[in-house]
Each structure stands twice: as structure tokens, then as C-alpha cells.
């Protein structure tokens, strides 16, 4: 196995990690920003007020995007297993 193959696999893994984490992170970012804006407008500074809606929104994002996330992970795993013969030099 040469270094280009290792770098390619690493790059694909990092791209997959970014794709899988994006729905959850973007949801938490948007909800956190909206709650922070609401807190600054109303002058309510309660920590749990930002945590609970974020947790609920992230759970909903996982429910909505969960099937796609699993499908992407399985496709990546199948692609890695399909690459094993070529990585070992078998063709």
C-alpha cells in the first residue's frame, strides 16, 4: 500500500465525518443562535433555556437524518472493503 492510497482513505474518512456531523452541528448552531438572540432581547440569562431546545432540536435532526447517516456509513464501509484487494496488490 502506497502513501497515496493511505492519504486517499484518510481524506475520504474526513469528508465522511464532516458530512455526517454537519446536520447535527448546523442544527445546534442555528438553534443556539436563535435562543441567544431571544435571551439578549428579553434579558433572560438562564443556562437551561439554551440547553433544552438545542437537545430537542439535535434529537429531531438525528431522527430526520439518521437513515441517511447510516446509509452513508454503510456505503463508505462497503467501498473500503471493496478496495482491500487493490490495496494489497491483488488487482
- Which structural class do you get from the secondary structure elements? mainly alpha
pLDDT < 50 runs, ≥5 residues: none
Main β-sheet, in a few words? none
Share of helical residues: over 70%
Ends apart, CA distance between termini? 12 Å
Rg, rounded, reads: 20 Å
The number of distinct helices, counting runs of at least 4 residues, comes to 2
Number of strands: 0
Mean pLDDT: 92
In terms of DSSP E residues, the strand content is: under 5%
Overall geometry? elongated
Number of domain modules: 1
Q: Would you list the SSEs in sequence order as H and E?
A: HH
Folded structure, characterized:
The chain is mainly α and 91 residues long. Helix content is 89%, strand content 0%. The chain has one domain (3-87). It has helices at residues 3-42, 47-87. The radius of gyration is 20 Å and the shape is elongated. It comes from Cryobacterium melibiosiphilum. It is a multi-pass membrane protein. Its main location: membrane.
Identify the notable features of this structure and list them briefly:
91 residues; mainly alpha; 2 helices; 0% strand
What is this entry, summarized?
This protein is mostly helical and 91 residues long. Helices cover 89% and strands 0% of the residues.
Amino acid at each position: 500500500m502506497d502513501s497515496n492510497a493511505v492519504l486517499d482513505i484518510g481524506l475520504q474518512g474526513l469528508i465522511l465525518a464532516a458530512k455526517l456531523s454537519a446536520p447535527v452541528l448546523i442544527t445546534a448552531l442555528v438553534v443556539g443562535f436563535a435562543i441567544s438572540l431571544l435571551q439578549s432581547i428579553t434579558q433572560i440569562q438562564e443556562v437551561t433555556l439554551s440547553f433544552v431546545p438545542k437537545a430537542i432540536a439535535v434529537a429531531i435532526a438525528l431522527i430526520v437524518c439518521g437513515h441517511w447517516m447510516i446509509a452513508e456509513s454503510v456505503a463508505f464501509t462497503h467501498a473500503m472493503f471493496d478496495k482491500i484487494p487493490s490495496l494489497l496488490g491483488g488487482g
